[in-house]
Amino acid sequence: MSSLRFLQLHREDDHAVRAELAAGLAETPPRVSPKFLYDALGSRLFEAITELPEYYPTRTERLIFETHRQAIAEAVGRGRTLVDLGAGNGEKAAAWFEALAPRQYVAVDISVDHLRHALASLQQRHPGLPMLGLGVDFADSLHLPPEVGPGDRLLFYPGSSIGNFTPDQALRFLRDAHREAQGGGLLIGVDLVKDKALLDAAYDDPLQVTAAFNRNLLRRLSRLLGCDADVADFEHVAFYEPRQQRIEMHLQARRALELRWPGGHRVLAAGERIHTENSYKHTVEGFAGLLRDAGFGAVRHWTDPQHWFAVFSAAAAPA
Ligand SMILES: C[S@@+](CC[C@H](N)C(=O)[O-])C[C@H]1O[C@@H](n2cnc3c(N)ncnc32)[C@H](O)[C@@H]1O
Questions:
Q1: Which residue has the least CA distance to atom 8 on ligand 1?
Q2: Residue 206 CB neighbours (<10 A)
Q3: Which residues line ligand 1 (CB under 6 A)?
Q4: Residue extents of the structural domains in the chain
């Protein structure tokens, strides 16, 4: 018998989604939250990015997980409910099933269709593990519904997705995570500050897969807002901004144009940009401090030999 349940709390046809997009486009400079990068095609394009030689985060995090799997498993504990935040295809979490022996796997993602497919395939391969899919947008706050059930939880947030948040937002998110762990813990992957050339190449690859991922947002925008944005009118711009320690990703207008949608419009000059993503980089000390400020204890970390990426474990209960 299948023990897979799915709960969809996020709907893209929601009035609130249109209002959020219109409000972001009205700002100076205009912006669209990176969460809108992930429709079904965006999720697949992200998976392609993780296979690019320039995109070091995924393979570096995997190396850390593989090298230190037993030590990390001992630090975070076995038998908990494993809550995968921004699960994508769930494969990173699945690589932990044996070592962590979770009593339940909860996969949370805004990319609802992609998550449904991923979970159906994971359930076939792990029929004995109860699974719950949650189609949820946790950008503003993380609240897990009662369907997750009681008991301590291990919150898993790999891939340096925390980098999409400003440091203030990251602290708020980590406080939510601390509460939602219910006395369990957190296992999180964090990209570290490093050489600008390496970072620039990772977010602007010569094959232009990252460009496709970014420009796919224009199709999403057209679908959600009804604004008929032309992909050909925009180019992908991505660079490391060392003062703020963040990658910035933008869509830059190739010509003067106007985006029109029912109830609104936005004029863009040639060269004007829509800001679509930040990816903040951290230092080990700085991120450990954020975890402590959020209420976590027993903070530990593992890194790769080049110190490009770090994995942190932290306990939600006092050590
Ligand atoms: C950078 S990808 C990481 C995917 C996978 N966990 C990994 O490490 O390779 C970010 C994931 O978070 C999801 N996501 C982004 N914003 C979200 C939000 N506001 N609420 C829920 N999921 C979100 C995306 O759909 C995507 O699957």
A1: 159
A2: 10
A3: 35, 38, 43, 46, 50, 58, 86-88, 92, 109-111, 136-139, 158-159, 161
A4: 51-194+282-315
Mutate to test the pocket of ligand 1, among 35, 51, 114, 210 (most ligand atoms within 8 A of CB): 35
pTM tops 0.90, yes or no:
yes
pLDDT of residue 12: 81
Residue range 51-194+282-315 forms a domain whose CATH class is alpha beta
Question: Mean pLDDT over residues 31-37, rounded?
Answer: 98
> Closest Cα to residue 184, out of 295, 64, 87?
295
